[in-house]
Amino acid sequence: MDRNQQLFEQAKTIIPGGVNSPVRAFGSVGGIPRFIKKAQGAYVWDENESRYIDYVGSWGPAIVGHAHPEVVEAVSHAAENGLSFGAPTENEIRIAEAIRHIMPSMEQIRLVSSGTEATMSAIRLARGFTKRDNIIKFEGCYHGHSDSLLVKAGSGLLTFGHPSSAGVPEDFSRHTLVLPYNDIEALEQTFASKGDSIACVIVEPIAGNMNMIPATSEFVQAMRRLTDQYGSVLIYDEVMTGFRVALGGAQSIHGIKPDLTTIGKIIGGGMPVAAFGGRADIMSCVSPLGPVYQAGTLSGNPVCVAAGLKTLEIIQRPDFYNTLSARTLELSKGLAGIAEEANIPFTSRSIGGMFGFYFTAELPTCFSDMQRCNQVLFKEFFHAMLARGVAFAPSAYESCFVSAAHNSEIIADTLGLAAESMTEIARTV
Ligand code: PMP
C-alpha cells in the first residue's frame, strides 16, 4: 500500500470520507486522493514524493504560483507581529483600497474568511436592504454551502448527484427560485410574475462550478435591466472569477456594474480571506451602521490580509494578465488540437487564467449541456494525466486554473503528456 493510500485509510477513520471538503475525495473519478506534502510554483508533491503539474491551484487562489517567495515573506513578517488581534488594523484599510481600486463597483467592503460567508452575508444584506425574502439563483451555479443557496448548486453537489442537501428545511429553500443559466425568457417571466418579491439575483457571471460556462452578454444585460426595473439587488459572485478571468473580474469584461460583489480565493493568496461589498447605500445597512448583522472573530486576520495584499500587488504588475491569458489559451487550444487528432469529441475554452475542457463536440452553454458530456472519457483522461504527473480538478464539473508560474515549458510538457493520454484513451472511444 502506498503512502497516499495508507493516509486515506487512516483519514477515513477520523474525518468523514477522509477529507475536509467533499470533492477532494475523488468521489466522481474514483481512486486514491493524493495527500499533498508541499507545493512550489506550478508543482505539488504528494506523500509518495511524486510531483504533479498542478492545475487545481488550491481551487483558484494560487494565481501567482504556490509559495511565492514574496507572499511567504509577507506572511512570515506579519506572523512575527502576532497572529490575530480581533481589533482593526491599518492593512485592512489598505486591502480594501486595493480591492476598490481594481473593482470600483465595490465602494464599501467587508472582509470575511470564506466565500460561503461572503455570499451568505450578501444575500442577508440584499434581503435586509430590500425587505424582501425571495432570491433567484441559477442551475449549476455554486455559491458556497449556506442553507438557502444549496439548491441545485454546482461543484461537489453536482459531482455527488445531490440536487440539494439533506438538513435544509423546505421553509428555507422555498424562497430560492432556481432558473436555467443563460435563459433570458425564464428570467423575464419570473420577474414579470414575482418581481416585487425578489430581493436579489445572485449569479456566477462566468460560471466555474459546472465546469466553466460564461454568461452571454445578452444574459448579463437582462439581469442588470430586470433587477434595476424591479428594485432587486444584483449580486455578482466573483469568488472564483475575481482577479482570475481578468484583473477586474467578469464585471470588467462584461462592462456591468453589479450592486454587490462577493470575492474570495485570490484575495487571500492562499489564506482564508473573502469579502463582500458594493454600493455604499446598501453596505451602510451592515452592522454596526445598520440593522443587518454580520461579524467574525477572525475577519480581517492580519496574517491572511498580508498574504492577500502582497498577492494583489503582484497581479497588478505589468503584463501579468497578458502572459497568464496567453499561456492558458495555449494550453486550452493545445488540448483541443490533440483531442482532434486522436478523434475524440472534445472542446475547451479559456478566459484569463481559467479554463474548461469538455468531452463533447459542442461548447456547453448551460447546466443541461454539461450533463451530456462524456464522464467516462473525462475519468480516463484525468487518471491518464495524473499517472503522468499532471493534476487536473478531480471532477468534470470543475474549472481548472493556470498560474504565473506555469511557464511555456511547463505548458509544453503538459501538452506532450496530454498527447500520450489522449492516444491511450482513444482506444475506448
Ligand atoms: N462562490 C463561488 C463562485 C465559488 O466558486 C466558491 C467556492 N469554490 C464559493 C462561493 C464558496 O467559497 P468557500 O469555499 O471559500 O466557502
UniProtKB/TrEMBL annotation:
The enzyme class is isomerase
One family name in Pfam for this protein: Aminotran_3
- Chief place where the protein resides: cytoplasm
GO cellular component term of the entry, any: cytoplasm
Q: Which family does it belong to?
A: Belongs to the class-III pyridoxal-phosphate-dependent aminotransferase family. HemL subfamily.
Q: Relate the assembly described in the record.
A: Homodimer.
Q: What is this protein called?
A: Glutamate-1-semialdehyde 2,1-aminomutase
Gene source species: Snodgrassella alvi
